[in-house]
Write a structure and sequence with these properties.
The protein is an alpha+beta fold. The chain has helices at residues 26-42, 65-73, 81-97, 101-104, 107-112, 156-162, 165-177, 212-220, 249-264, 302-314; strands spanning 47-49, 53-56, 61-63, 114-120, 133-136, 139-146, 151-153, 183-188, 194-199, 229-232, 238-243, 275-279, 282-285, 287-290, 295-298. Helix 1 (26-42) crosses helix 3 (81-97). This is Prenyltransferase.
């Protein structure tokens, strides 16, 4: 007699949803938050649990968004959540309670482990990151110190201890350019639509949009042309782009908009659900969420519309 292996039990979509993490039912969210509280207690910390974060009795805030997404994405289901939560909380507490890397690492080692990181503005405290550079609407570039067990996002106070922001950013960009390309795929369909996806375990994969021309040269062997590229960075481990050279941009735009929205949903390290026009390092948003219809729509300005018209007049597939 054979045994049937059952998949993990999760509540159906018809179950009442959690207001903060809609991919959880209310019961699943209660289970998740309860386990988080218990885990902190087991480590000697009493916390007050809120919808998307907890605060301990010393006033320290611990976000839950990425951890919730990690639990949701794990196909093994709620039975493995305690282990996932335990590992995450232990790592966070160890980083918070231990000596700061800024105090223990030599200055040159700190500089060698600096990287620029593109993040969603919802994930940072604007008051603590006044130096953050706007990359696109809602997206910011900050500096991060890469450590063996964690990534330390550097605040204004931390930068003041290290030196001038301009020099540190230059070094961080050099470090970013030196990273290997961990993985590359070309997404195609039967009608000829295609775009490139760079992916990897590095927390800075999507942030390589800051060196997009260099990445394109390494992946395709060609530089980006005068028209730039379509680009999407749904979450920290993926960067998608399509060099703009001809009318193949039209199907690629729709496909990449869907790719970005799908990749952004419910993922740890989510950055943006939209597709952008990259031109000389500047990002212009080309898709947005239609509040009335509840889906995505493409929105282009005069410059991009003019570019489309020129490419159409030029004819297809002239590279």
């Amino acid at each position: 007699m054979g045994w049937l292996r059952r998949g993990p039990r999760r509540d159906g979509e018809d179950a009442p949803r959690d207001p903060e993490f809609a991919y959880f039912s209310r019961d699943e969210a209660a289970l998740f938050r309860g386990r988080v509280r218990e885990t902190f207690a087991e480590l000697g910390l009493e916390v007050t649990v809120y919808a998307d974060h907890v605060i301990d009795d010393r006033g320290r805030r611990f976000g839950l968004t990425n951890l919730a997404a990690v639990c949701h994405q794990d196909r093994r289901g709620p039975r493995v959540w305690p282990g996932l939560i335990r590992r995450h909380v232990e790592l966070v507490v160890r980083a918070m309670d231990g000596p700061s890397a800024l105090d223990t690492l030599p200055p040159e080692q700190i500089r060698s482990q600096l990287y620029p990181r593109v993040v969603n503005g919802d994930g940072i405290d604007a008051a603590a990151f006044g130096y953050a550079r706007t990359v696109a609407p809602g997206l910011y570039e900050i500096l991060a110190l890469d450590l063996p067990e964690s990534v330390m996002m550097l605040t204004d106070d931390a930068l003041a201890r290290l030196g001038g922001h301009a020099q540190l950013r230059d070094r961080a960009l050099r470090n970013l350019r030196g990273l290997p390309v961990e993985g590359h795929e070309t997404v195609r369909d039967a009608d000829g639509m295609c775009f490139e996806v760079v992916l990897g375990d590095s927390f800075y994969t999507a942030s390589r949009v800051l060196d997009l021309d260099g990445v394109a040269r390494r992946v395709t062997g060609l530089p980006l042309g005068e028209h730039g590229a379509l680009v999407a960075l749904p979450f920290r481990h993926q960067l998608a782009f399509h060099p703009i050279r001809d009318t193949s941009i039209i199907p690629a735009l729709g496909a990449m908009a869907s790719f970005a929205a799908t990749g952004y949903e419910d993922t740890p390290g989510a950055i943006s659900p939209y597709v952008f026009w990259w031109r000389d390092g500047t990002l212009t948003q080309l898709s947005e969420h239609d509040e009335e219809r509840g889906d995505l729509r493409i929105v282009v300005g005069d410059d991009f519309q003019e570019l489309l018209e020129r490419l159409i007049a030029q004819g297809p597939d002239r590279r």
